[in-house]
Amino acid sequence: MAVKFLPGVNIDDALQKVRDKVDQAKADLPQDLPDDPVIQEVNFSDIPVIRVVLSGPFTLRRLQNFADDLKDSIESIPGV
Question: Which of 34, 39, 48, 74 is the most buried (most CB within 10 A)?
């Protein structure tokens, strides 16, 4: 499950409230769960994603070569 917060919310306070509520609910969870619930912050701006679609009057092999070259160029950028 994921919980999303609105912009401007104090993340530390919100995460603590979520932790508190999950702790309260643990007694009602099935006893045979393999692991306890995990509460962690995931900031998707720390995990940027780019999707590129290539098309054109080329063979699939040629488009794959373009894609491979583009991937190599993007990955050569510092910090990527």
Answer: 39
In whole angstroms, how large is the CA radius of gyration of the chain?
22
- Listing DSSP states for 18-76 in one string gives HHHHHHHHGGGS-TT-SS--------GGGS--------SSS-HHHHHHHHHHHHHHHHT
Burial 54-63 (b: 16+ CB within 10 A, else e): eeeeeeeeee
Distance CA 45, CA 5 (A): 14
Whether pLDDT at 80 is above 80 = no
Q: pTM of the full predicted structure?
A: 0.51
pLDDT, tens digit (0-9, with 9 covering 90-100), for 18-77:
999 999 988 888 888 888 888 888 877 777 778 889 999 999 999 999 999 999 999 898
Alpha helices in 9-53 (DSSP H): 11-25
